[in-house]
Amino acid sequence: MTTVTDAAATAATAADPAEPSTEDLAASLRFSVTRLARLLRQQSDAGLTPTQLAALATADRCGPIPVGSLADEEQIGAPTATKIVEKLHAAGYVDRTPSPDDRRVTLVSTTPAGQALLADIRARKTAWLTTRVAELDDRERAALADAVAVFDHLTSPTRTAVTADLPEEDPA
């Protein structure tokens, strides 16, 4: 007589042991992506926090942008966004100007110094990644190219193949 436990063991044995479960794959992906993100952040060396750097990149990509919209984009509170903008302004990376439509609204845009900082950080990160990718063999490079397409698909807002093919600005 076959018990439920025996049936489960047989099913587990029948499954390809080289195929990780969806949960195991997700956990492994999370770990690798987190580690890669940390290593890339270490290449920044800009003297800014990750949140400040992300806000600067958003201001560059979307600016001039109201502080409230910057807060929404970065998923932070308006008071936090205001403090970040103050620090970025004091460092000379952003300008604050009153909105021509509503003087109660402050618009944030990057300065040439802020744009240069972002370009420098992106160049350093790309150089670091280029060095690492150059160390891969042809099979690994092909697998990486496939993985990049999957990452784009996983991170696209609508998760469609059409939007995954569109370039997105690097936040920094």
Task: Reconstruct the topology from this structure.
Blueprint: H1 4-14, H2 22-42, H3 50-62, E1 65-66, H4 67-74, H5 78-90, E2 94-98, E3 106-110, H6 112-134, H7 138-155, H8 161-164
Antiparallel strand pairs: 1-3, 2-3
Comma- or semicolon-separated keywords:
3-stranded antiparallel beta sheet, Arc Repressor Mutant, subunit A, mainly alpha, disordered N terminus, 172 residues
How much β-strand is present in the residues? 5-15%
Cα-atom radius of gyration: 22 Å
The mean pLDDT is 86
Task: Tell me the name of the CATH class of the domain at 48-111.
Answer: Mainly Alpha
| Backbone shape | elongated
User: Largest sheet, if any?
Assistant: 3 strands, antiparallel
CATH topology of the domain at 48-111: the name is: Arc Repressor Mutant, subunit A
> Could you tell me how far the N terminus lies from the C terminus, measured between alpha carbons in angstroms?
61 Å
CATH architecture annotation of the domain at 48-111: Orthogonal Bundle
Strand tally is: 3
- Please write the string of helix (H) and strand (E) elements: HHHEHHEEHHH
CATH superfamily of the domain at 48-111: Winged helix-like DNA-binding domain superfamily/Winged helix DNA-binding domain
Please tally the helical runs, counting DSSP H or I stretches of 4 or more residues: 8
- Major beta sheet, strand line-up: 1-3-2
Task: Work out the helicity level.
Answer: 55-70%
Residue ranges: pLDDT <50 for 5 or more in a row?
2-14, 159-164
